[in-house]
Design goal:
Layout lengths: L3 E5 L15 E3 L4 H6 L11 E7 L5 E9 L1 H4 L7 E5 L2 H7 L6 E6 L5 E7 L17 E5 L1
Length: 141
């Protein structure tokens, strides 16, 4: 069964804040999202997997899915988070901006995904003030 998840990109995600963040966060609490990406072994320090993503133009991109987990392995470790890294070139080529959505869809091949960027939808002129915009990851049905 095909599954798609979308991540609304923040200014930090696309590098607009000048930070040196290591990729976009994948929340551990979302079990469905965690099952969507490859399983990483927490018994290993910083396990990772390279995933292949095909964009709408047929270009292949390699992204690193990593579990930074030194909190589990080092006395003074602080990190315990999943991230997708090596996205900077993709974001630059696609002109990604804060508020755009990054979509990942499964394919018939393990470790291979479809990827696309959906531009931020601007609210209509007659929209009521205080329009709520979904942030973070969400399942696309």
């Amino acid at each position: 069964m095909k599954a798609t998840f979308a991540k609304t990109l923040s200014a930090n995600d696309v590098g607009a804040t000048g930070s040196h963040q290591a990729g976009i966060l994948v929340p551990k609490a979302d079990k469905e999202l965690m099952a969507f990406f490859p399983v990483l072994d927490p018994a290993i320090l910083n396990p990772d997997a390279w995933i292949i993503c095909i964009d709408e133009f047929g270009d292949e991109w390699k992204f690193r899915y990593v579990y930074y987990n030194n909190r589990l392995h080092a006395e003074h470790g602080t990190r315990n988070e999943y991230r997708l890294t090596y996205l900077t070139k993709f974001f630059k080529r696609m002109g990604a901006k804060a508020g755009d959505s990054l979509l990942f869809s499964t394919t018939n091949e393990v470790g291979k995904y479809r990827i696309s960027l959906k531009r931020k939808e601007l609210p209509a002129e007659d929209s009521p003030p205080g329009v709520i915009v979904l942030q973070g990851w969400r399942r696309v049905h």
